[in-house]
Specification:
It contains four helices and twelve strands; from the N terminus they run E-E-E-E-E-H-E-E-E-E-E-E-H-E-H-H.
Length: about 220
């Protein structure tokens, strides 16, 4: 489990195909003291397991499923990466609960300077539209950000100078692909609502006790 608060940056030193999977060698100036083989590190938002560790370089394996859902299928050596080690239960949760399981990739549609922030518009597959809500949380390349505006095809986030400086979102260009993980709790609520609608349509649901979007909004969940 992660928070989406990036600890440090890394550089993709080497990428080695392994069938449909890949092995990545990542170099970082981040303090890896206490990190050991078997630990999880979020790399551009993807939860990966350390399989080799030597000084400032660590290696991780990516399964075919992870490769297919992330930007790593096209990244090249030299790419800058966002890194976050796994959350400890004693830590403050400064971002939001991030699993490190990427839902899909999106793309940078536009970047607009507004006062001291940069408004970044991210295009997404329409399949993610139901899991994106205004003022909700989203992880972009592992960065926890708040959604300012959203539709079924895109959403806006506001990036402050500190975030732009220490993460890849600051140097991302229009057209660049990014890893997207929607809010974990939102996904469960969305799935539950869809199942209730299916049950009701099929005549198996309890109409009087159905949970609707209106009810969730009334109770403060949306």
């Amino acid at each position: 489990m992660f928070t989406g608060i990036i600890e440090g940056a890394g550089t993709l030193k080497k990428i080695q195909p392994n069938g449909e999977g890949k092995r990545l060698a990542i170099q970082t100036g981040m303090d890896l003291e206490g990190t050991k083989i078997g630990d999880s590190i979020a790399v551009n938002g993807a939860c990966l397991t350390v399989v080799s560790l030597s000084n400032s370089v660590f290696e991780v394996d990516m399964a075919p499923e992870t490769v297919s859902r992330t930007t790593f299928k096209s990244l090249l050596p030299g790419a800058r990466l966002n890194l976050e080690r796994a959350l400890r239960l004693s830590d403050r949760l400064d971002g939001h609960l991030v699993s490190g399981h990427i839902d899909a990739t999106g793309s940078v549609v536009s970047k607009t300077v507004k006062s001291n922030a940069v408004i970044v518009t991210i295009g997404i597959p329409e399949t993610l539209g139901d899991e994106i809500i205004e003022k909700g949380s989203v992880a972009i390349d592992g960065i926890s950000l708040t959604i300012n505006r959203c539709s079924h095809k895109d959403f806006d986030v506001s990036v402050i100078p500190h975030t732009a400086k220490i993460t890849t979102i600051g140097t991302a260009r229009v057209g660049d692909s990014v890893n997207i993980e929607t809010d974990m709790i939102g996904k469960y609520v969305n799935r539950f609502l869809k199942q209730k609608v299916t049950d009701t349509t099929a005549g198996t649901g309890n109409h009087s006790g159905s949970i609707t979007r209106e009810l969730l909004a009334k109770k403060g969940f949306l």
